[in-house]
Amino acid sequence: MSFNDTEIKVVQWAEARQIIPNSTPMAQAIKTLEEVTELLTAIHRGDKEEMRDAYGDILVTLVVGAALADMDIKQCFGEAYETIKNRRGHLREDGVFIKE
Hints:
Elements: H1 3-16, H2 19-22, H3 25-45, H4 48-68, H5 73-84, E1 89-91, E2 97-99
Antiparallel strand pairs: 1-2
Helix pairs in contact: 1-4, 3-4
């Protein structure tokens, strides 16, 4: 299934459960933070299955949050890429990229 198809299904799922239009972008951002915490725990434990679940849940919260904010998540993603595509910097020993 393509990202576009999955995005549509996620929005439809959120509408069917009244998350859209009754939640808020802030509530979804808080949910995203909860899912990121679950991801960090899964990474720390080396639990690939839980990591996969957390990455997916994070994407769901981002799609729903963008929909609630009347934004297109693909456009946000594309604009972020356009911002970083020519970014220069260096990778530290711990794997963190530091932009110039």
